Amino acid sequence: MSVADGASAVYATARQDAKCEFAVKELGATKAFNTSTQDWVAEVLKATDNKGVDIIVDFVGADYFQGNLDAIARDGIIVNLGFLGGSKLPAGVDIGGFVRKRIRYEGSSLRSRSEDYQMSLRDQLVKHALPRFIDGSFKIVIEKVLSWKDIQEAHRLMDQNKTKGKLICTVD
Questions:
Q1: SS3 of residue 128 by DSSP
Q2: Fewest CB within 10 angstroms: 54, 80, 128, 163, which?
Q3: Global pTM value
Q4: How far is the C-alpha of 11 from the C-alpha of 96, rounded, in Å?
Q5: Domain ranges (residues) in the chain
Q6: Could you say which architecture CATH assigns to the domain 11-139?
Q7: pLDDT 10s digit of each residue in the chain, 172 long?
């Protein structure tokens, strides 16, 4: 959506080269950086002439917190939507970037939102994105469709962290 809405560049991170390649070739990212083999912060800064990025959407949390502070641009916004890498910051995290860069840090979860809010968000998504799915501008990447009876297989696939699209379990 970012590219479709006029973002000048979109950068992604992943822990596997195949997923980085997928993010660029299939999802339209400008560049993607492998956090297991590259200094992703240095790469982001290099790609942005040391400016950093304006918005970071983070699902990882603690493991990326310092890197996010280092990679965000002045007056940037970091949006945290999950804690896959934990919620406790390690010792030595320098939060000075908040003041030096005038950063905004926001957290959000739909679970704590009212049903009215969730319905409004759904309506915005339908208005904004559905036409783009219909005309083919946006696509849904489906990795595999399984019967609900194979839910353990779906969990094994997620545990392997190699899927690039959605896993769908159908109820027969």
A1: helix
A2: 128
A3: 0.86
A4: 24
A5: 11-139, 140-172
A6: 3-Layer(aba) Sandwich (3.40)
A7: 677 778 899 999 999 999 999 999 999 999 999 999 999 999 999 999 999 999 999 999 999 999 999 999 999 999 999 998 889 998 999 999 999 999 999 998 888 899 999 999 999 999 999 999 999 888 889 999 999 999 999 999 999 988 999 999 999 8
